[in-house]
């Protein structure tokens, strides 16, 4: 049985709140495994996640005080409003090291790229970040997470790149899949050229939802 990759993407359409139930349930599972869990999104979505975690039976205040839950809208990885891959990678590495130092099994993180990218419109920066992140995942087994991509707010070209650079697909808390469209760095150009196939896959993921 193949192991589902720890670096996963969630491509969705409709209201951003659509994925909250599945992500909250996944966070509950990771908390039970003694992971520190981080959720990065807009203030409205952070409030929504807090409410959803309460519905999952999680004492958010207690878990926050313990340091096991961090719900945040902070975007300290932005430089003058623009996405900085180096800053983001440093933030992830520091957060993982702190989680391990504090006695957690590891770090599970999820964030919505529409919020994370800020004013950035250069999708090549996102591609650079995701490849650096995937390499980091490969050498740091205590890290796992879900990168969220909203099909209605991100360019289709960015969605195509997001699909091919993630080895795993997040559907919901009980279903994560190997990504058949994942391509190595050496095969990236050829994979991206298959627009029709990638667009069809993106549409399927949007229909399946969380």
Which keywords apply here?
globular; 210 residues; alpha/beta; two-stranded antiparallel sheet; 7-stranded mixed sheet; 9 helices; Rossmann fold
Give a verbal description of the structure.
The protein has 210 residues and is an alpha/beta fold. The chain has a single domain, classed as 3-Layer(aba) Sandwich (Rossmann fold). 47% of the residues lie in helices and 21% in strands. It has 9 helices and 9 strands. The protein has helices at 20-32, 43-55, 60-66, 85-101, 113-116, 123-139, 156-164, 188-192, 195-208, and strands spanning 7-12, 35-40, 69-72, 78-79, 82-83, 106-112, 143-150, 168-172, 175-178. A 7-stranded mixed sheet has the order 3-2-6-7-1-8-9. It has a two-stranded antiparallel ribbon with strand order 4-5. A hairpin with a 2-residue loop joins strand 8 and strand 9 (175-178). Helix 1 crosses helix 2. The two termini are 24 Å apart. The mean pLDDT is 86.
